[in-house]
Amino acid sequence: MKESATSHTTFVIVAAIVRPVLNLLMNKKWEGLEKLPAGGFIAVPNHCTEIDPLVVAHMLYNQKRMPHFLAKAGLFKVPVLRAVLRNTKQIPVERSSAGANRSLQLAKEVVDEGGAIIIYPEGTLTRDPDLWPMRGHTGAARMALESGIPLVPMAHWGAHEVFPRYAKRFHIFPRKTSRLVVGEPVDLSAFAGRTLDKATLTEATNVIMEAITGLLAGLRGEEPPAQRWDPSAHNQSTHGRFGERGGASEGKTARKSGPDNIIGDSTE
Questions:
Q1: Who contacts 25 (Cβ-Cβ below 8 Å, separation ≥6)?
Q2: pLDDT, tens digit, 9 for 90 and up, residues 110-168
């Protein structure tokens, strides 16, 4: 994607500040970079800590792919940050259906020009007590199926040790390593020609979440849970912050003794 002079300059300035900080906070190991498409694509990573967007953006920027996120509309009201977000063509996301549709249209325009859009299909930090990907929203699946844009799963692990979910400070020592792996584009050909109703989008989203979870399982060297965490089954909010003590501890109890769970972003 050809960035404007303002966008390019802003990215350079932000990267000059953020990259040294991230390099100071943690080591990095990136795998599968050759799988990034040459043209525009949708990246769908897991989400377990607030600094995840910086981790993904760092990787993409180093590959000369400018990162564009679907960001909460409220962030565009914050002084200084608002200018940075607008100048780097980040995309505001509103909770209303009309606002969500506008966000998806803007995202399509970025990708059509060869850009990379990052969508967190979980919509917020995972509520899973063991930080596995939880139930996904359908916005990424809808965009990919409507447009034919390649959808690339990603998973990363380690940044949560540097800045745990809802933490108030960084944990630099002992030094940690953030690992990130890029997977093959998700094959959604089985859904071609189907009506994009709720059932189809949910099924496609499940395929996407399975791809992300599989990559994360490889990084962690562990088996993921048999059932994906569903916040609604545990009386947890699907957006915004939730009580770490109550939410996480209740989640662990529910996973052990509660009913089976079934399987995003705010554009569902």
A1: 162, 163, 170, 172
A2: 888 888 999 999 999 999 999 999 999 998 999 999 989 999 999 999 999 999 999 99
